[in-house]
Amino acid sequence: MKKVISFVVAIALVLSMSVCAFAAEVPGADADYDAWVSYYTEVLTDATLTDDAKTTTIVDNMPASKALFYASLDKAVDDVVTDGVESDAVLNAVNDKLIAKYGWGLDEAEWEYEVEENLDINIDGFKKENVQREKRLLIEKIESEKDDKRLYALGRMIEEMCKSETYGLPKYGTQEEIEAATEKELMNRWLKLVVNAAVQVTYVGSADCGKIKDTVLTFFNEIQRKAVWPIKTEFVVDAYDSNFVTEKQKVKQGKLVIGYRAGMSYDRDNYAAVRLMTMIFGGGTFSKLFTNVREKMSLCYYCSARLINNKGLIVVESGVETENTVKALDAIRNELDDVKKGNFTDETLENAVLSLTDMYKSVMDPVGAIDSWFTMNCLAGEFRSPEEYIELIKNVSREEIIIAANMVTEDTVFILESEK
User: Fold this and answer.
1) Do 208 and 103 meet the contact criterion of CB atoms below 8 Å apart?
2) 154 close to 317: Cβ distance less than 8 angstroms
């Protein structure tokens, strides 16, 4: 009889402990961020709960807003994590239960949180503290690019080359424009973008893409969208004249940047031949610029060419000593003339094909590259797989490369010299 009583008492104590463990008051429907952080912190630090019980309690008790759920849980986890406890383990367990119970995970909740954070506005415009922070970060980015003389020289060349085109505008604006922008002006501009801008959303992750799409559409379904501004890039097929610009600064190494018009009237105009020709000209260690101008003639610290196909430009960048600038410019021009005449070896051509093939094969590996790939194809209005591009490259003939090279015209030479 005593054993039975003891057994019953033991069960009663366990049940009592279980009830107490789950007895923390769940915040109400109108509860704020701090209340939910406090609640999740209490659950996570309750020594009477097993890890699985904590996870279940968290998933069973959450606010209606996924964004609020993610923000408060993330803060609570950060606050209570101690040595030997991985926050990822807690969040992974919660994520698995969310998917099993609701069909969505923490990455979807995080995405909604970030969207809501970025829509933090009021009647007077974006929050002043947020605007001031972003202004500071953007001005710092502009200053850092000025300090990076290679980036600076490239930006100045494009600014000069495309000064009558939208493409020539500074991508971050100017410091004066940034400082003058008000919270109200920025909000009004943002509202115009929401109503009129073309919107492309690329999601790469493990969540249900259908649910992500539905979440995005909920934001836009309440917006009276108007005629979408067209996405159009102005292509200049031929250079009108050669533009020569020189600047002097206190730099240890001079910069020589040359901008060419690639003879393209749209982003995929003769793309494969132009791309392969650019690789032969200066796209790798096998290229003419590297093997001749840099290695054999020792005129540059670096010298390479790349194609900007969405604008139809070819850009050559090189680092030179001021006294070698003219020699380097002449040598680069001679190498392009050689390509136009077909003076490149079969080995160089094969290496260019292999290099591009390897690049296309690896393009779907990192998340950022996947995002860029789909964005590029969507903007082009026609999706092509990496395998399709590889086939295009492999089928380009030597004659097509020569024709593509002869379409290239020099537009702008920008030289950044060292002050004497």
Assistant:
1) yes
2) yes
